[in-house]
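Chain X:
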Amino acid sequence: MPAARPRQAPVRTPKQGRSKATVAAILEAAARILAEQGWAGFNTNAVAARAGVSIGSLYEYFPDKQALADEIANAHIAQGEALLTAAAVEIADADSAGALVDALVQGLVDLHRDDPRLHRVLSSEVPLSASARARVEALRRGAILFLEQALAAHVDHPGVAAQLLVDTADAVIHRWFVEDDGTLASPERLTQELRRMLRAYLAAPLSSASHPTGSA
């Protein structure tokens, strides 16, 4: 994820209904341009034109395209936090290791299915602010910690298992949904296969993985 210079806050915060509507229109236009054209094609003039506002009106709230991108990123991260919070409820209700895997995979699928083109640009092109990158990492670590606690009753090393499950599922699902080039399996098939793979990992006897390669 590219690094950015320190984030600049919007010039002023909208308080009235009309100004809030203007900011909402600006951010919606900015998100669509960012998803369609990437960071290289993203600029304040194009955003103002699509939003139907003057460039001066845009600069009242956002000093540059970096401030726009930060606001979009934070909204996107907040959606991810809400989705994973919902998944945490499912994980908490799971009564087996297999059910935990199913809840984790479904939560990450829901997260990556939400505007995958924008997700791709934000994760690979936009130079996010330090605060946005910290939120992303906090989201990952929170998911690992919650899953570790839920796995404690099911596996011998829940911390290791939780990190492997979260990072593996996130990487595979990101590739399938966000970087899909049209040649991959359907999302439904991916979900089934990923669940099988992660369930098999949790079900494997510890002794079979504890011997060095080539040992009896």
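Chain Y:
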Amino acid sequence: MKKEKIKGRTVEDVANALKKHFPSAIESIKVITKDTVIFAKREDIKKVLAYLKEKLGLNYLFSITAVDYPERLPRFDVVYHLRSLKEDIQLTVKVPVEEGKSVDSVCDIFMSANWFEREAYDMLGVQFKGHPDLTRIYMPDDFDGHPLRKEFPLYTEE
């Protein structure tokens, strides 16, 4: 399959090409504070990110994080920030993840994902299926809990 045209594209062109290629995997596309956000299904994230990198030229994954919404189901959004190094195109992909469910690791697609996935696991408890070393990076191994979850206590009584 050929790479799609790059010169003169906009982020909207990329988002629409992705929606056209994966109509059932993309739940919606929204512009939120000037940022184009693609909402994808959890089970399709690997193929969506691989297509963005290999066919649409968004070859730089500069962040993965997660957001905790304890009052909502699914509880978490895993957020991927991608950029094209050849163009001025940046895109955000969000995937809702239920507590206790895992999202596929994308370490085999983007080397930079390794550290980001470990951080989301350590700080929020989000599981990444297939990660080569999903262990804590900030907190001690015997630490109980995940400090960036909303219910985590801010202070302890001594």
